[in-house]
Each structure stands twice: as C-alpha cells, then as structure tokens.
Hints:
Helix content: 40-55%
Strand content: 5-15%
Bound molecules: nicotinamide-adenine-dinucleotide, uridine-5'-diphosphate-glucose
CATH class of the largest domain: Alpha Beta
Number of domains: 4
Number of strands: 14
Amino acid sequence: MLNVCVLGTGYVGLVTGACLADLGHAVTCIDIDPAKIEGLARGEMPIYEPGLDEVVARNGEARRLSFGVDPSGALGEPDLILIVAVGTPSGEDGSADLRALFSAVDQAAGLRAASQAGGHLTIVIKSTVPVGTCRAVEAMVARRLKPGSFSIVSNPEFLREGCAIEDFTRPDRIVVGSASEAGLAAMRALYAPLTSQGFPLVEVGALETSEMIKYAANVFLATRIGLVNEFAQICERVGADVDELSRAVGADRRIGPAFLKAGPGFGGSCFPKDLRALTSFAADLGCPSEIAGAVIAANERQKHAMAAKIEEAVGARLCGRRIALLGLAFKAGTDDVREAPALSILSDLIAAGASVTAYDPAAGEHFARLVPGVRIADRIDRALADADAVVIATEWPEFLTIDWMAARLLMRRPVIVDLRNHLEAKRLIALGFTYRGVGRHASPLPVSLPAYAPQPMGVQDISEPPSRAPARRGPVAGGPIRVFDQDEARREGAVPAE
Ligand SMILES: NC(=O)c1ccc[n+]([C@@H]2O[C@H](COP(=O)([O-])OP(=O)(O)OC[C@H]3O[C@@H](n4cnc5c(N)ncnc54)[C@H](O)[C@@H]3O)[C@@H](O)[C@H]2O)c1
Ligand SMILES: O=c1ccn([C@@H]2O[C@H](COP(=O)(O)OP(=O)(O)O[C@H]3O[C@H](CO)[C@@H](O)[C@H](O)[C@H]3O)[C@@H](O)[C@H]2O)c(=O)[nH]1
C-alpha cells in the first residue's frame, strides 16, 4: 500500500483516486472547490460516470479513500506519490493554460518543505501538458525542495469519459516517463496491481517523450474522426454509405475499426483543446503541425454544416421552426458538455431563427449553465411536442427506445435528423418519417455516367482530349459527374456540331 495524494478531483482526479484506492493504496483526493468536496463527503458524485459511485463508496468505507480541500496533512507523509490532475484548458490563443497546474504544484512544494517530512516525494503530472511543462515543474519544485528528495514523472491519462473505470482498470497501456529511477520505481509499485495482471507499463526515459505521447494519441484519434467525417460529406454527395465504408475500411487490420464513426464533429474537453495546444506549441517550436491544424478546421466545418442539413431535411427555412434537440453531452455516457457539437448546432439554429427545445438524460443541467435561457425539457416527449424536426446529436441508448409512432403524433412534421446514425433508418422511413443521417442518403442520387461523346467509327485522332466540355467547378446537380443527352452534349461542346 502506498500513500497517494491527488490534486484536482475532477473527471480524471476522482476516477484515478478512487481506482487507485480500489487497487489497495491509501488515497486522499484534494480539490479547491469546497462544494465538490462536501458533496463527495456525503457520497454525491460531482460527475456522471457509470460505476464511479460504487468504487468511491466501497473505498470510502474501507477507509482507503478520503477527500479534502487542504493537502497539508497528506504532504507530511514521508513517502508520498502526489498526482496532479488539475485542468489545463485552452487559453484565448489556443495554448494550454497552465496556471492551475503551476499554482497547485508550487503550493504543494511549499507545504512539503514546511512539513520537513523525510522520505521521497514523487510528483506525477497526469494532466495533459505541452512538451516541456514537466521540466518547468521540476525547476519550480527544485527552488523549494532538496535535490534527491523528490522526482518528477509524466504519467498521461488515456481514459475516456463514460467508460473511465474500465479504461483505468483495464488499460491498453500505462505510460510513465522520467529520467529519475526513483520516480520510475514508484510508478512500478503504484501500478503493480495492474501490471501483475498483464496490463503493460510503457516506461520512457524522458519526460518529453511521455508528454508528447499523449498529444500524439489524441491527434491520431481526432484525425481519424476528421477524415471519416470528410468521407461522410463526400458519401452524401454521391449516394454512398459512410457506415458501410467505415466497416469495410476498418476491416483492414492496418487501419482497425475503432474511431471511424461519422457524426456531427468531435467535441469534449480533450480533442479540441489538445489539438489546439499541440498546434500552438509546435508552431512555437518552429515545426508547425499542419495536419492537426487541418483537422481542427475540418471539425469546425463539420459542426457548422449540421444546421444546413437540418434545414434541408425540414425542406424550408428554419426561421420560426421548432426543433427538438436530443443529446447535449459531447457523446453518450457522460454529462460533460465541454465543446459538445450540440452547442454549435444550437447556436446555428438560434441564429437561423429556429426555436429549440433540448433534452439530455444526464447533461441538461450542465448545458443550461453554459447556455442560460435555453429551453430544456425534462422528458423526451415534451421536447418533441409540436416539433418541425427532431435532431439526434448524441448517441444515448435511451433514444433507441423512443416510440416513434407516438412521437409522430406529437410532432408537427415527421422529420428526423440523426447526426449519429444511431436509429434504424429503414423502419423510420417506413413509418413515414423524412430521415437524414450523416454520410448516407435515404434515397440514392440519380444515376451518373461519365460524359460520353461517341466517336466516328474508323481511325480516331487521339491527339485531342476525348471531351472538350468546359471544366466545371463546384457541385453539379445529379452528382459530381453530369450525364448529357446528345442535344445537351452538343450545346456543351462535348460533341462536334453536325
Ligand atoms: N476528462 C478526461 O476525460 C481526461 C482524460 C485524460 C486526460 N485529461 C486531462 O486531465 C486534466 C484534468 O481534466 P479533467 O477533465 O479531470 O478536469 P476537471 O475540470 O474535471 O477537473 C479539474 C479539477 O481540478 C481542480 N483544481 C484546480 N486547481 C486546483 C488546485 N490548485 N488544487 C486542487 N484542485 C484544483 C478543479 O476545481 C477541478 O475540480 C486535464 O489536463 C485534461 O486534459 C482529461
Ligand atoms: O468514432 C468516433 C469516436 C468518437 N467520436 C467523437 O469524438 C469525441 C471524443 O470521444 P472519446 O474519445 O470517446 O471521448 P473522450 O472522453 O474525450 O476521450 C478522448 O480524450 C481523452 C482526454 O485526453 C483521452 O484520454 C481518451 O483516450 C480519448 O479517447 C466525442 O465527441 C465523440 O462523439 C466520433 O465522432 N467518432
């Protein structure tokens, strides 16, 4: 059993603290938000995370997990692992705002110095931080603590909200980076209950490698989504189906099936922020990350393309239309609305003059805090009443059980815009709904063939290009390739006049 103190009891800190206690360690979780700590002391979870309440309760009862606002007691423990899991949000220029992190570390180092505790302090940076931050932390702590009495480790977190307990307890890998053997030894001991079950601990010798691994993983995953959303746009134009495409492309073992689901664009507290942070520090280093920049721009386009899709489905301008927006969290399984696509969609709908009633099984309260004045229904049927269209923005399982026959009677128009390809399109169309998904068309586009200019039989002059039809720009009705009949082809110059 090791003594562990976690600074920052948010999505990552609370899950980490509770799961480490479950592995047998003695954990104190600290947060500067007294309301959060008081709630936890009463057994109230500050976040929606399936299974978390049980882990917290179990370890609270076993006296392995406690909460507080003051880290001084924990910092007096001779041998201590101090895990820093405070937020590192985007600053105004897109770079990571590290003020909370440096302030937490500086305060902890000061308290440690004042405690005059012997033993070794391992400071573990779990927050996602730009490359070079851990080294800056090391320099900051070195001003307060004696050399050899502490070490710095980078230990980025890869958990996903909604399945955080599973991700923590059955990780694909645990990454730890440090130049300090004492620091790495502490990490081996901390994670021994997981590594002994075969979960891999990837040790890297430089703080910078570990910091960079976290950004590389997130940029990689976000890029897959960015790509598949671009493919979805193309699929819509040509009548292809992006879900079938993802299944087939993902069956290639070199590509793999995960993170190929098209949707309204990625959101959450990590991908958008981490892509911005990477592009910011990479540019500062003189090695611009053009791919990450392009993924950010493509994702913005994707989010803002959704209002036009809704308008097309409604078949009329959105001004004065009533829209039911189902799903406000950035994905299912969480109450987190940070950078949720629903936020951009709502603001585009409002800007177009629509009136919106929103619903989410978990995130309604958080959403209302971010968007004061938004109308949030407490039940799906209340959101659907008199709607001209229903928009599915998050793939909550609850939406699969909606009685669409009954819903049709409540709605003003039977229109469903399913931005997660979550529902069964065929059944809804059979029920009389106009259905739009992402990257798939309810009805195929008109057949398109290449422009065809019949050549006279006999010897052909191949020095000329086969068609002299003027080059076309932009989308063309009926698909990207136009079919001419003979008269039209002549007018277009594709076939010489007789
Ligand atoms: N949310 C995720 O799924 C996830 C996954 C992997 C990594 N991360 C990274 O982990 C970090 C934390 O993310 P989060 O989503 O848990 O953030 P969060 O906002 O949910 O939690 C951060 C907590 O830190 C507290 N805090 C701020 N300053 C403090 C201080 N000086 N002392 C003690 N507590 C303090 C805040 O009150 C808040 O409760 C970020 O760097 C994030 O990028 C997040
Ligand atoms: O095929 C997919 C997969 C995801 N998404 C979207 O991508 C966003 C992020 O989803 P997900 O990765 O599941 O959620 P997070 O909880 O933000 O987790 C990511 O960000 C965390 C914080 O860095 C990392 O720890 C995780 O490994 C990483 O998956 C959400 O808007 C999803 O709807 C898609 O659109 N299509």
